[in-house]
Amino acid sequence: MAKKVKKQQSGGTPATVALTEAGVPYSVHAYEHDPAHPSYGEEAAEAMGVSPERVFKTLVADVDGALVVAVVPVAGSLDLKALATAVGGKRAAMADPAAAERTTGYVRGGISPLGQRRKLRTVLDSSASGHATICVSAGRRGLEVELSPTDLAKLTDAVSAPVGRP
Questions:
Q1: Fewer CB in 10 Å around end: N or C, the chain?
Q2: What torsion, rounded to 10 degrees, do the Cα atoms 96, 67, 70, 165 define?
Q3: pTM for this model (two decimals)
Q4: Collapsing DSSP states into helix, strand and coil, what is residue 81?
């Protein structure tokens, strides 16, 4: 993995800027996004030639009236009940897409757990710890960052919990 600490060129995203400012080692993977592909995450895994278990999607949920970010493998889905439990809540539902976009500053399919407009409480699926590096959205469709799950958890103040299901 390359360490990117030089100034961002134009086209950097809030996620890559946050990583650079933190001095965290990461690499960027760009690919041509196909708007017809049925799954942003699966498209990313296929385009990068990376196992879907190492590519994580960023989902925004509403837990008892508060928005929460869940970062889970694209190979599975989010267990809303487990997410609510992980943050001490009772009920969780997927957030309204417009509210997720407005709050994070990113568009659906490009929401990153990093560099959000308003930092949300974050839960990283515990399966991430089984990988040296994982890939998450860099803040736009067709752009992923690869970094260690430990660094991702530190930068997002994430808690680790089994919130993904196969």
A1: C
A2: -60
A3: 0.91
A4: helix
